[in-house]
What does this fold into?
Amino acid sequence: MADGIQSRAIAAGVRGFEAEHNLPPPSTLAAQLVENLSPSTKSSRSDENKELKGLFAIIQQVKDHPELLKTYDERVEHNHMLLYVYARVVLDNIKLEDPFLDSSHVCTEALRAINFLRFTIKETPSVLAYTGKHGFVFRGEEPLWTWLLPRLLRLLGHSKLVQLEGSIEGFLQYLLLVVSRNGVLRESASSMSSYLRAVVSGRAYSIWSRRGIMMRLITVQD
Amino acid sequence: METLQDPRVSPPPFDAELNAKFPSEFALGQIFGRTWSHTAHGITYKVQKASQALTQLWSIVKVMTYTLVSRDRVFSCFLSWKENGPWILDVLLELFPVFKRWRLADSDYYVPLIELTLDITKCMRDEGRFSKDLKTKAYTILILACADVLIQPGSPLNTEQPDQNTELLYCKALLCIAHGSLDDRVVGRLAESKLVNELALLASQHPGLDPGLGHDTDLGVRH
It folds into this structure.
């Protein structure tokens, strides 16, 4: 049945899954990120700098004292924070409009980020629907998956980041599988499906309409 | 659609500036409710170039197809995934004129398009959860894709030495269509008009032309 494109994409997803088993826990990975990136992370916004500085300190603290996280809910909350920091520091720092973009370096960083996302989501799948009262500067009340997807999708298909296509596709498939398998994420499954379909339908509409050509707009409603 | 296929309308360049935001605010309102813009932060993104938009479109279609052809049973009992079947077929149908219009009618897109459509068609053929209408639609798209690749000047089958994997894929697609033609007369009639007759016409117009499938591969001839 799935003997063509899909089987290759799934195989890529499996390779990503296997890679997870060679990774240290998310808290350690995030702490390594802090050690590597915090000195170079500077923002023009002081509130953002202050926020990241505070979060880096918490990450380091949990790395040194993992027993601080006692319950599953605390682990979910902590992983939400890890994903927020990782996305802010790595994914949001990729400047696609930079004419001197170092494709190789960006791809390496993005692949590392995707592996980190997979590993963290695997540990606490319900983090995808996390909307808690976190008070982060760059987060609203949307579920985490809604906040993460645009940060990856903006990289997908970019001419300088061709290497990332398979990994991002594999990660999206992984997300669809995770939200489908977890009862608490049922609502997210429906919204995620609608979101992705809206991206395709909206894109098709936008491309066609650039020439003033009317076409049927595929309206997606669940 | 007619305008899209009008040869007098020259397509914009592949790397044209698009500078569009996705998903649209309308779509987000449908998904998250009217007040999403007051409570959400950074849930849209921008795409600068048309080339990225098209590549991304194709990538997401592949991802969504996963929910359809995956062997994982979890997808078959989910309403929103079940809805992906008709949606994906609609999108694939819309993709033909887009690919043609944006000059993507080469092996980079045609071969994966047939491959993906073949995956979907075989999945729908083999599993009882899909309606007959949906199966017919899948076969229709496969036939149109195969017919298209046959007549396009830049298609991978219309080269001096077609790639063997491409030929193999095409033959698999034809076998699948032949299977569908036995089950459904509508599919059979469409295959006859779009493929069998086209091939015959092609051969009569260009004597000595190998239509890419090699000798002794005429499905209509009993050897």
Notes: The helical segments of chain A are 5-20, 26-37, 46-64, 72-91, 103-123, 144-153, 165-181, 186-209.
